C-alpha cells in the first residue's frame, strides 16, 4: 500500500512539469521567442553582409564573412565596383529626390558630385528644379550625360520674393517654389496611374549624403526622420526618441518648440502620403526662418506618427555641408576667362 | 491543518496544476505580436534587399565577362592628404562615392595625425575601395594655427611626400600606373579619370574656380602646351593647381628624389615637384586640348558651431560618441 502511494505521489509531482515541458516545445509562440533571440544575432550578420553583398570579392580572400569583434580592426572590403547606375528593379521602392538648384559658379560642381553619389543608389529618380525662367543647357547636358533617371523642371522665384525678405537674408526661405513644383509634378504624374511604392526626399545640392541614408529612408511608411549634422549651430540636430522608439521631441537649441524642429535633409515622406494630401506643400506667407519644414509636415503627420531611423536617431548619415563662394577677384570687369568654357 | 508531508504534497500539486492551467490559457490568448511582426517584417525587407543585391551582382558578373579585363587598365593612385576637422568625414564620404565609380583605382589616404584615427580607418574599410592608409604629423612649426589664413603655410606637404615614399618602397618600375593628388574638398567628374589614365609622363588640364578665376588652364597650340592662362603669380615655373596634373608612376620611381618642398613659397608647391620631373614642352594636354573643365577647386565652409560652443560651456554638449 505504501509503495503504491509513493508511486502515486511521485507521479502527481512529475505530471504537471512533464505536461508543461512537452507543450512548451510544441507551441509556436515559444518558437517566436527563440526566433527573436536568434534574430538579434542575425541582424549583426545581415548588416555585415549588406556591406559586402553589393561588391565582388577578390580572389584569394577567404569567402566567409568575418564579423568584426568589438575593438578589433574593421573588416576590409576589397573589390572593384563599377555600377553606373544599378539597374532598375521592381521589388524595391523608388526614391524620388527633389533638388532645387540655381545658377552660380559652383552649381556644376555641386550637381556633378551629387550625381556621382546618386549613381550608387538603386531605383532613384532625380527631380531637378531650376530657379530659372528657362531650363539651362548646363543642367540639361549634365543630367543627360549622368545616366540617372531624371526629371528636369524649372520655375523662377519672382524678384519680389527674393528681395522682400532680404532684410534677413539668412532666413529667406529658398527653393520653396521649386520644391513645390517638384511635388506638383509628382502629383500630376501619378494622378491617373498607380503610384509606385516609394518615398520623396528633399536633397539640397550642397549637402553630403551617405549611401546608407537612402536605404534607411526607402521603406518609410508615412514620414521618417533622422539626425542631420552641422545645422542649428550644433554638431548635429536630432529628433528625441523615447525608449519605446517614438519621437517625443527635438534635440535642438534653435527654437526647439517648433512643431517640427528638423532640417530639410532630415526627413522623407512616402509617396502615398503625398498623394493622399494634395493640399500639403511648403508655404511662403508668414513662414518664419526655420519653419519651412513645419509648413509642409504639419499637413502630413503628427509628432507621434514619425518613424525614427538611423538606429533610433543615433547615427549621422547626412551632413549639411555648405560650399564656400569662390572669390573670382581676378576676373575683373570684363572677365579674364573665356565665357564660352562652361564651369 | 497540521504540517504533514501529505498536506505539503497536496498543496504543491494544487499549485502546480493551477499554474499549468494558467500558462496553457495564456498560450491560447491572442498576444500583442506587433513587435514580433514588425521585426520579422523588417527581417524580410532586409532579406529582400540582400536578394536584389545578389541578383544584381550576378548580372554584373555576367556583364563583366563581356567587358575588358580591368587589370589591363593602368592603375590610378589617388593621393589624398586629410586632417581632422568637423567636415572631414563628410568630405571623405563624398570623395569615396566619386572614386567608387573609377576602375582600377588605388586610394592612398594620408592623415595629418600621429596615429591612424578610427574615423578614417572605418570609413576606408567600408568604402569598398582599394586603399592604403598612412599617417604623418606635420611638425608644429610648419602647421598653421586655426586663426591663420589658409594660404599662410603650405599644407599636406609631408603627407604627400609620405605617399610618394610609400609608392617608391612598394612599387617597381615594371608596375604601370598614374599618380594624382586629390584634395578631399575638391570636386572631380568621372571623365577626369579617363584623361588621367592615358598619361604618358605628365599630363595637365584646366581646373575650375581657382586662382581667383572661373578656371585656370594651360595654353595649348598644335597639341603642345606653350604656357598657362592664370592671373595669379603667372611667372611660376608651373603656375597651376595641385588638382591640375598627373604624373606616371614610372617617372616618380625613376626620379627618386623628386618631392614637394616644405620650404616652398606660397603657390610654388606644384612647381617644386614638377621642376625635377618634366619641362613645359613635354607636358601632355588633356580635356580636349585643355578646353573643358573636369575638376573644380571647391572649398567647404566651416560649419557654425555657436550653439554647440554655448552648450559645451554649460557642460551640455552633444554626445561625443556619436561620430559626425
From TrEMBL, chain A:
<dbReference type="GO" id="GO:0000139">
    <property type="term" value="C:Golgi membrane"/>
</dbReference>
<keyword id="KW-0735">Signal-anchor</keyword>
<feature type="binding site">
    <location>
        <begin position="204"/>
        <end position="206"/>
    </location>
    <ligand>
        <name>UDP-alpha-D-glucuronate</name>
    </ligand>
</feature>
<dbReference type="GO" id="GO:0050650">
    <property type="term" value="P:chondroitin sulfate proteoglycan biosynthetic process"/>
</dbReference>
<feature type="binding site">
    <location>
        <begin position="320"/>
        <end position="322"/>
    </location>
    <ligand>
        <name>UDP-alpha-D-glucuronate</name>
    </ligand>
</feature>
<keyword id="KW-0464">Manganese</keyword>
<feature type="binding site">
    <location>
        <position position="206"/>
    </location>
    <ligand>
        <name>Mn(2+)</name>
    </ligand>
</feature>
<feature type="site" description="Interaction with galactose moiety of substrate glycoprotein">
    <location>
        <position position="330"/>
    </location>
</feature>
<comment type="similarity">
    <text>Belongs to the glycosyltransferase 43 family.</text>
</comment>
<feature type="glycosylation site" description="N-linked (GlcNAc...) asparagine">
    <location>
        <position position="312"/>
    </location>
</feature>
<keyword id="KW-0812">Transmembrane</keyword>
<keyword id="KW-0479">Metal-binding</keyword>
<dbReference type="GO" id="GO:0015018">
    <property type="term" value="F:galactosylgalactosylxylosylprotein 3-beta-glucuronosyltransferase activity"/>
</dbReference>
<feature type="binding site">
    <location>
        <position position="174"/>
    </location>
    <ligand>
        <name>UDP-alpha-D-glucuronate</name>
    </ligand>
</feature>
<dbReference type="InterPro" id="IPR005027">
    <property type="entry name" value="Glyco_trans_43"/>
</dbReference>
<keyword id="KW-0333">Golgi apparatus</keyword>
<feature type="binding site">
    <location>
        <position position="131"/>
    </location>
    <ligand>
        <name>UDP-alpha-D-glucuronate</name>
    </ligand>
</feature>
<feature type="binding site">
    <location>
        <position position="179"/>
    </location>
    <ligand>
        <name>UDP-alpha-D-glucuronate</name>
    </ligand>
</feature>
<keyword id="KW-0472">Membrane</keyword>
<protein>
    <recommendedName>
        <fullName>Galactosylgalactosylxylosylprotein 3-beta-glucuronosyltransferase</fullName>
        <ecNumber>2.4.1.135</ecNumber>
    </recommendedName>
</protein>
<keyword id="KW-0808">Transferase</keyword>
<feature type="site" description="Interaction with galactose moiety of substrate glycoprotein">
    <location>
        <position position="237"/>
    </location>
</feature>
TrEMBL record, chain B:
<dbReference type="GO" id="GO:0050651">
    <property type="term" value="P:dermatan sulfate proteoglycan biosynthetic process"/>
</dbReference>
<feature type="binding site">
    <location>
        <position position="185"/>
    </location>
    <ligand>
        <name>Mn(2+)</name>
    </ligand>
</feature>
<feature type="site" description="Interaction with galactose moiety of substrate glycoprotein">
    <location>
        <position position="307"/>
    </location>
</feature>
<keyword id="KW-0464">Manganese</keyword>
<dbReference type="InterPro" id="IPR005027">
    <property type="entry name" value="Glyco_trans_43"/>
</dbReference>
<dbReference type="GO" id="GO:0046872">
    <property type="term" value="F:metal ion binding"/>
</dbReference>
<keyword id="KW-0479">Metal-binding</keyword>
<dbReference type="GO" id="GO:0005975">
    <property type="term" value="P:carbohydrate metabolic process"/>
</dbReference>
<dbReference type="GO" id="GO:0005801">
    <property type="term" value="C:cis-Golgi network"/>
</dbReference>
<dbReference type="GO" id="GO:0050650">
    <property type="term" value="P:chondroitin sulfate proteoglycan biosynthetic process"/>
</dbReference>
<keyword id="KW-0325">Glycoprotein</keyword>
<comment type="pathway">
    <text>Protein modification; protein glycosylation.</text>
</comment>
<feature type="glycosylation site" description="N-linked (GlcNAc...) asparagine">
    <location>
        <position position="289"/>
    </location>
</feature>
<keyword id="KW-0812">Transmembrane</keyword>
<feature type="binding site">
    <location>
        <position position="160"/>
    </location>
    <ligand>
        <name>UDP-alpha-D-glucuronate</name>
    </ligand>
</feature>
<keyword id="KW-0735">Signal-anchor</keyword>
<feature type="binding site">
    <location>
        <begin position="81"/>
        <end position="83"/>
    </location>
    <ligand>
        <name>UDP-alpha-D-glucuronate</name>
    </ligand>
</feature>
<keyword id="KW-1133">Transmembrane helix</keyword>
<feature type="site" description="Interaction with galactose moiety of substrate glycoprotein">
    <location>
        <position position="216"/>
    </location>
</feature>
<dbReference type="GO" id="GO:0015018">
    <property type="term" value="F:galactosylgalactosylxylosylprotein 3-beta-glucuronosyltransferase activity"/>
</dbReference>
<protein>
    <recommendedName>
        <fullName>Galactosylgalactosylxylosylprotein 3-beta-glucuronosyltransferase</fullName>
        <ecNumber>2.4.1.135</ecNumber>
    </recommendedName>
</protein>
<keyword id="KW-0472">Membrane</keyword>
Amino acid at each position: 500500500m505504501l509503495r503504491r502511494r509513493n508511486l502515486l505521489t511521485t507521479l502527481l509531482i512529475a505530471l504537471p512539469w512533464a505536461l508543461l515541458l512537452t507543450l512548451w516545445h510544441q507551441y509556436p509562440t515559444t518558437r517566436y521567442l527563440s526566433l527573436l533571440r536568434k534574430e538579434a544575432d542575425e541582424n549583426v550578420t545581415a548588416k555585415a553582409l549588406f556591406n559586402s553583398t553589393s561588391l565582388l570579392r577578390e580572389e584569394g580572400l577567404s569567402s566567409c564573412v568575418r564579423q568584426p569583434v568589438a575593438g578589433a580592426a574593421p573588416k576590409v572590403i576589397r573589390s572593384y565596383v563599377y555600377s553606373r547606375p544599378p539597374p532598375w528593379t521592381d521589388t524595391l521602392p523608388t526614391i524620388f529626390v527633389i533638388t532645387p538648384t540655381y545658377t552660380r559658379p559652383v552649381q556644376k560642381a555641386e550637381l556633378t558630385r551629387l550625381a556621382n553619389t546618386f549613381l550608387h543608389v538603386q531605383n532613384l529618380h532625380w527631380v531637378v528644379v531650376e530657379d530659372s525662367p528657362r531650363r539651362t543647357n548646363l543642367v540639361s547636358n549634365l543630367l543627360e550625360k549622368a545616366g540617372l533617371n531624371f526629371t528636369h523642371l524649372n520655375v523662377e522665384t519672382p524678384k519680389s520674393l527674393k528681395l522682400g525678405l532680404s532684410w534677413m537674408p539668412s532666413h529667406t526661405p529658398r527653393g520653396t517654389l521649386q520644391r513645390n513644383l517638384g511635388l506638383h509634378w509628382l502629383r500630376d504624374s501619378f494622378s491617373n496611374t498607380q503610384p509606385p511604392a516609394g518615398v520623396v526626399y528633399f536633397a539640397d545640392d550642397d549637402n553630403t549624403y551617405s549611401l546608407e541614408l537612402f536605404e534607411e529612408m526607402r521603406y518609410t511608411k508615412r514620414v521618417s526622420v533622422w539626425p542631420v549634422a552641422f545645422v542649428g549651430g550644433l554638431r548635429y540636430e536630432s529628433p528625441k526618441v523615447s525608449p519605446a522608439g517614438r519621437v517625443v521631441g527635438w534635440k535642438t537649441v534653435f527654437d526647439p518648440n517648433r512643431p517640427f524642429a528638423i532640417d530639410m535633409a532630415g526627413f522623407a515622406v512616402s509617396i502615398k502620403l503625398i498623394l493622399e494630401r494634395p493640399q500639403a506643400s511648403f508655404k511662403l506667407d508668414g513662414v518664419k526662418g526655420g519653419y519651412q519644414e513645419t509648413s509642409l509636415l504639419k499637413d502630413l503627420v503628427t509628432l507621434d506618427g514619425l518613424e525614427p531611423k538611423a538606429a533610433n536617431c543615433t547615427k549621422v548619415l547626412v551632413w549639411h555641408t555648405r560650399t564656400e563662394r569662390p572669390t573670382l577677384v581676378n576676373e575683373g570687369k570684363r572677365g579674364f576667362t573665356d565665357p564660352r568654357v562652361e564651369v | 491543518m497540521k504540517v504533514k508531508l501529505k498536506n505539503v504534497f497536496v498543496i504543491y500539486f494544487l499549485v502546480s496544476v493551477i499554474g499549468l492551467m494558467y500558462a496553457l490559457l495564456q498560450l491560447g490568448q491572442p498576444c500583442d505580436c506587433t513587435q514580433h511582426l514588425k521585426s520579422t517584417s523588417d527581417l524580410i525587407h532586409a532579406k529582400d534587399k540582400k536578394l536584389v543585391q545578389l541578383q544584381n551582382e550576378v548580372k554584373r558578373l555576367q556583364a563583366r565577362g563581356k567587358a575588358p579585363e580591368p587589370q589591363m587598365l593602368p592603375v590610378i593612385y589617388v593621393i589624398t592628404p586629410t586632417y581632422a576637422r568637423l567636415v572631414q568625414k563628410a568630405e571623405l564620404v563624398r570623395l569615396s562615392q566619386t572614386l567608387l565609380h573609377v576602375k582600377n583605382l588605388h586610394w592612398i589616404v594620408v592623415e595629418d595625425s600621429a596615429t591612424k584615427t578610427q574615423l578614417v580607418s572605418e570609413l576606408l574599410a567600408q568604402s569598398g575601395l582599394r586603399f592604403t592608409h598612412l599617417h604623418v604629423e606635420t611638425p608644429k612649426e610648419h602647421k598653421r594655427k586655426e586663426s591663420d589664413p589658409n594660404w599662410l603655410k603650405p599644407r599636406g606637404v609631408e603627407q604627400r611626400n609620405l605617399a610618394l615614399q610609400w609608392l617608391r618602397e612598394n612599387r617597381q618600375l615594371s608596375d604601370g600606373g598614374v599618380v594624382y593628388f586629390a584634395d578631399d574638398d575638391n570636386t572631380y567628374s568621372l571623365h577626369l579619370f579617363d584623361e588621367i589614365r592615358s598619361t604618358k609622363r605628365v599630363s595637365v588640364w584646366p581646373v575650375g574656380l581657382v586662382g581667383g578665376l572661373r578656371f585656370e588652364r594651360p595654353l595649348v597650340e598644335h597639341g603642345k602646351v606653350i604656357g598657362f592662362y592664370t592671373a595669379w603669380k603667372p611667372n611660376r615655373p608651373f603656375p597651376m593647381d595641385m588638382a591640375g596634373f598627373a604624373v606616371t608612376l614610372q617617372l616618380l620611381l625613376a626620379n627618386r628624389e623628386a618631392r614637394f618642398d616644405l620650404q616652398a613659397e606660397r603657390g610654388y608647391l606644384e612647381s617644386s615637384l614638377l621642376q625635377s620631373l618634366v619641362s613645359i614642352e613635354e607636358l601632355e594636354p588633356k580635356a580636349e586640348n585643355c578646353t573643358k573643365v573636369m575638376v573644380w577647386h571647391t572649398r567647404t565652409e566651416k560649419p557654425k558651431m555657436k550653439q554647440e560652443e554655448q552648450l559645451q560651456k554649460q557642460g551640455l554638449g552633444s554626445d561625443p560618441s556619436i561620430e559626425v
